[in-house]
Design a protein that fits this description.
about 220 residues; mainly alpha; about 0% strand
Length: about 220
């Protein structure tokens, strides 16, 4: 016979439908995206300032906004895709998801630092750390769901590994920029973020080769 704690865990912390978890997460992602634009402000008109001057003066805020918008949007897409095959949930999954949402909701703050202080060491380090954490937490959610059997049975081990390895370029690029910001130059660290695009392409090709090799192995 089940004890009270076991019954409580089974009835109150586990479920076969994670829709409410997904809906709540979508709302947090949407709010974080909306808050990003608050840093783009039109300064008071001093009589000699033109609209063109305002646009030029606000370009760091525009750049920070665009970068963070893309990062949050990509993380939402990753979250959405994973929860298409995560078919049930438990307390551990909910806890990990809330940690992820904590960092998602926090993104506007380091974005504000970047737009206000530019290539400042603390601003660059915090921003790079937060962006890397988003991907790591997505991976933690994915790994937890897989090992706890919360994923659709069609997702076999090779597919699980493929989905887990695909986004690894993000934390690698952003976290490697942290020592660059501290010991070399924060501006160089910021420019290094653009390496994400070629690194992602190269990593994608490596992943394709690994997946083809894994698919061919059982046939040999």
């Amino acid at each position: 016979m089940e004890d009270m704690r076991t019954r409580y865990s089974r009835l109150f912390t586990r479920g076969a439908n994670p829709e409410r978890l997904v809906f709540f997460s979508d709302a947090v992602f949407a709010i974080a995206l909306t808050l990003l634009v608050i840093d783009i402000k039109v300064p008071a008109d001093e009589g000699t300032t033109t609209a063109g001057d305002v646009i030029v003066s606000q370009w760091p805020a525009f750049l920070a906004y665009a970068l963070s918008f893309a990062i949050i949007a990509l993380n939402w897409m990753s979250h959405h895709r994973k929860f298409r095959v995560i078919t049930s949930h438990d307390g551990g999954l909910m806890a990990l998801n809330f940690v992820l949402l904590f960092f998602v909701a926090f993104v506007p703050f380091p974005t504000s630092l970047i737009s206000e202080y530019g290539a400042d060491v603390a601003a660059v380090v915090l921003y790079a750390f937060v962006v890397g954490m988003l991907t790591v937490l997505q991976l933690a959610i994915w790994a937890y769901a897989w090992h706890k059997g919360l994923v659709n049975q069609e997702v076999d081990k090779p597919l699980y590994r493929y989905a887990a390895r695909t986004p690894l370029a993000v934390p690698v690029v952003f976290w490697l920029s942290i020592p660059i910001a501290i010991f070399i130059d924060p501006a160089v660290a910021m420019y290094s973020w653009f390496l994400l695009f070629p690194v992602d392409i190269i990593w994608g090709r490596i992943e394709d080769r690994l997946s083809r090799r894994a698919s061919a192995t059982p046939q040999q």
